[in-house]
């Protein structure tokens, strides 16, 4: 059975919320944090199913603007949401199924991807930079006092 995030992804949609989602169903609230090396912080895990049951229409249509093919066939993909201020970044498998994605309400569209080893730097049209460990986006972004 597909998770809620996988079902949305199949329709090129993501929840309108600053969050990191994994295809297996785990979702984390995040915030932009330009002073941190990753450019974002993980705040806490939340229940996406519950959020969507309360606000089923609170989703944004997404469209890719750039991509990078990884060794082995996976793909990094980034772009925009329905509103001009929104942006997303994602890793997909070779079948274009979601592995993980980050959606931001106030980043502007992501238009550049720079890959160095297992770290990708995604750059938005407004200069927001996310430095993401593509194998585990939680690494480098966990809050020290997170529970």
List the helices and strands and how they pair.
Blueprint: H1 4-10, E1 13-15, E2 19-22, E3 27-33, E4 39-46, H2 48-54, E5 59-61, E6 63-69, E7 75-80, E8 87-92, E9 98-104, E10 110-116, E11 119-124, E12 129-133
Q: Can you walk me through this structure?
A:
The structure is a single chain. The chain is mostly beta strands. The protein has one domain (4-133). The chain has helices at residues 4-10, 48-54, and strands at residues 13-15, 19-22, 27-33, 39-46, 59-61, 63-69, 75-80, 87-92, 98-104, 110-116, 119-124, 129-133. A seven-stranded antiparallel sheet has the order 4-3-2-9-8-7-6, covered by helices on one side. A three-stranded antiparallel sheet has the order 10-11-12, with no helix packed on it. The chain has a two-stranded antiparallel sheet with strand order 1-5. Strand 2 (19-22) and strand 3 (27-33) form a beta hairpin. The relative contact order is 0.20.
Please provide a brief summary of the model.
The protein has 147 residues and is mostly beta strands.
What are the defining features of this structure?
147 residues; mainly beta; 2 helices; 12 strands; 47% strand; globular
Distance between the termini: 29 Å
Unreliable spans? none
What is the count of distinct domains? 1
**How many strands appear in the DSSP assignment?**
12
Described by the principal axes of the CA atoms, the overall outline is: globular
Sheet with most strands: strand arrangement: 4-3-2-9-8-7-6
Quaternary structure of the protein: single chain
Q: Biggest sheet: strands, sense, closure?
A: 7 strands, antiparallel
Instruction: Specify Rg, calculated over alpha carbons.
Output: 14 Å
Share of helical residues: under 10%
Structural class: mainly beta
Mean pLDDT: 93
Q: What pattern of helices and strands is seen along the backbone?
A: HEEEEHEEEEEEEE
